[in-house]
Specification:
alpha/beta, eight-stranded mixed β-sheet
Amino acid sequence: MPDATASPTPGPRTAVVVVAAGSGSRVGAATNKVLLPLHGIPVLAWSLRTVTALPYVDHVVVVAREEDVDAVQELAARHLPEGREALLVTGGPTRHASEWRGLSALRGPVRAGEVDVVAVHDAARPLAGPALFDAVVRAAHEHGAALPARPQPGLVSGDGRRHVTGLVGVQTPQAFRAGPLLDAYTRAEADGFTGTDTAGCVAAYTDLPVLAVPAPATNLKITFAEDLALAERLLDG
């Protein structure tokens, strides 16, 4: 269960891009899965509550589908803490395009030197808590880039003959030094490059080392209906 309590000490000046431009097709819903209720609160609201409680987060950008804009605006009005705001932008046809639109909204403060680190988070991971954000943001500030990773045991090759070891599953939030991240996406836009995740674009266009931090088992992604049920049980403790 994500602890919404803010971190005790401020960290690097941080902006968070929450990507919420997916759909509900695999979860079996007629609406965007991040608008579905999780313990009576929309999935997206869990992430917004977490990031807006972090004392070092100065900017929050939510990337939503055009058809979800009204619903997300209403959700933010109901669930953001008093005095906190989130900038809403519409997403693009791919995850990479949606991330680019979210980062573009931060161009001004990044270029002005007002943001040290940008974290990009998938709203479909509602149980990512403050400790995980703290870890990736601080590691990114120190090393350049960081992401949560979890070992993937029990994998076999496609023909079933070989046990595959040493692989990890990469998650969000992923965090990066703000200037190099914006530069990477600017160059990717000029080249027509599309990455599978934020770290993929950074790896393609910068020399920043990407540090992996341990991901908790609870940082699940809402993809199928059973994931919502599991998240409910985890929140019940």
